């Protein structure tokens, strides 16, 4: 990856976001080129997937150069809904832990002419790493200027990968509206050089294109044919001292939400129950990772009341058994820190709750709400910082 200075990095991200701020939705779609930016997915055990959204191209291949020479993989295309767009994916495995790899994407355009994209690079994650840094953004709701402002407060060395923690896409309605926003997320988060993990939010469950969103991602349990809604996954030994557990909290339904409501509580219940069994299995495994962080779009505990009560009822006991050190969430568009072991009262519900683990909740889509959470883990310390779009540090949490 290029060695950007902070000023160069901010200039690049500002230029990337500035154009979309001046365009309406139809203009954004019309302005899309046929080949968008490549981005990285599913950094598994010594592995990485390169993804490329495009239309009208063929013969896509990715050549990767590392310490032991070159490797080339022919990409496979997933349909992106009933649209001319496809998401091409090339999976590299047996990578050397901690090594840097350069890669180039090549293809043939609609006229059959050979073309290549600019070289990018990534570092294979190292299970023996002594330290890892990652960034969390949430609830952007397609507001590119907010993410631009937030990323203006971040240095490239502040994170090795990013987590898009739900409601990044606002009720997706077509391939073009999704990709016009996604391409800017890739640009601003440097997704071609740093993996972008995704946690689904309730707004990604809405809109006419919702059932096709899975093709954008490469996640352990996603199967576009049989299991396109399986967004739960863990991310542990690949990142040294940090074990991330990601779940899909679904819609913001409630135990008494009518079954015919647009939030589809019956569907959500099945998704959460499947994850409950998976979490119990994880809890029974012996994990030597020093720090365990639980990530969900809707908080399980929230002193403001905006939480996924159905998820809490199904998962809370198991999460406590897992020894979660910190939870990271979003959803209610108002940042806050909910302390562990401290009782709070939810007056509207007439109940009191005492969270078993602390929760850091990120902000929302308006410029004044925008936040980024920077997490740093080492063998003996876990530190999270929440940074406002203005650059102000809103909260710092430290363990160890």
Structural write-up:
- The protein has 400 residues and is an alpha+beta fold.
- It has 2 domains: 35-123, Immunoglobulins (Immunoglobulin-like), CATH 2.60.40.10; 131-399, Metallo-dependent phosphatases (Purple Acid Phosphatase, chain A, domain 2, 4-Layer Sandwich).
- The chain is built from 6 helices and 23 strands.
- Helix 4 links the parallel strand 11 (161-165) and strand 12.
- Helix 1 runs antiparallel to helix 3 (144-151), helix 1 packs antiparallel against helix 4 and helix 3 packs parallel to helix 4 (175-188).
- The chain starts with 5 loop residues before the first helix and ends with a strand.
- It comes from Rubritalea halochordaticola.
- This is Calcineurin-like phosphoesterase domain-containing protein.
- Keywords: Signal.
- Residues 133-334 form the Calcineurin-like phosphoesterase domain.
What is the CATH architecture descriptor of the largest domain? Answer: 4-Layer Sandwich
CATH top level assignment of the largest domain? Alpha Beta
Q: What kind of sheet is the major sheet? A: 6 strands, mixed
CATH superfamily of the largest domain: Metallo-dependent phosphatases
- Quickly count the helices: 6
Strand sequence of the main sheet, in spatial order?
12-11-10-21-22-23
How many structurally independent domains?
2
């Amino acid at each position: 990856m290029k060695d950007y200075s902070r000023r160069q990095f901010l200039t690049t991200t500002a230029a990337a976001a500035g154009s979309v701020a001046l365009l309406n939705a139809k203009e954004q779609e019309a302005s899309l080129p046929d080949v968008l930016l490549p981005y990285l997915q599913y950094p598994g055990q010594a592995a990485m997937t390169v993804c490329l959204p495009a239309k009208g191209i063929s013969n896509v291949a990715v050549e990767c150069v590392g310490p032991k020479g070159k490797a080339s993989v022919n990409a496979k295309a997933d349909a992106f809904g009933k649209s001319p767009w496809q998401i091409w994916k090339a999976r590299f495995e047996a990578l050397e832990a901690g090594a840097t790899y350069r890669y180039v994407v090549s293809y043939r355009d609609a006229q059959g002419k050979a073309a290549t994209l600019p070289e990018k690079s990534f570092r294979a994650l190292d299970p023996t790493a002594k330290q890892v840094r990652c960034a969390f953004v949430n609830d952007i709701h397609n507001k590119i200027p907010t993410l631009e402002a937030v990323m203006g407060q971040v240095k490239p060395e502040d994170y090795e990968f990013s987590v898009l923690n739900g409601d990044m896409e606002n009720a997706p309605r077509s391939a073009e509206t999704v990709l016009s926003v996604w391409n800017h997320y890739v640009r601003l988060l440097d997704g071609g050089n740093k993996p972008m993990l995704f946690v689904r939010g309730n707004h990604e469950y809405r809109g006419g294109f919702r059932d096709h969103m899975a093709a954008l991602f490469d996640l352990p349990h996603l199967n576009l044919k049989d299991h396109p809604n399986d967004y739960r996954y863990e991310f542990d030994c690949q990142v040294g001292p940090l074990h991330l557990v990601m779940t899909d909290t679904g819609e913001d339904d409630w135990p008494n939400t009518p079954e015919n409501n647009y939030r589809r509580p019956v569907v959500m219940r099945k998704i959460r129950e499947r994850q409950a069994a998976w979490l119990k299995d994880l809890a029974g495994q012996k994990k030597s990772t020093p720090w365990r962080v639980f990530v969900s779009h809707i908080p399980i505990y929230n002193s403001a009341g905006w939480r996924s009560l159905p998820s809490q009822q199904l998962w809370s006991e198991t999460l406590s058994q897992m020894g979660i050190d910190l939870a990271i969430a979003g959803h209610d568009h108002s940042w806050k820190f909910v302390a562990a072991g401290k009782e709070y009262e939810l007056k509207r519900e007439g109940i009191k709750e005492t969270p078993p683990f602390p929760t850091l909740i990120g902000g929302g889509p308006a410029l004044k709400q925008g936040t980024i959470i920077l997490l740093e883990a080492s063998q003996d310390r876990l530190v999270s910082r929440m940074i406002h779009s203005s650059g102000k540090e809103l909260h710092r949490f430290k363990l160890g």
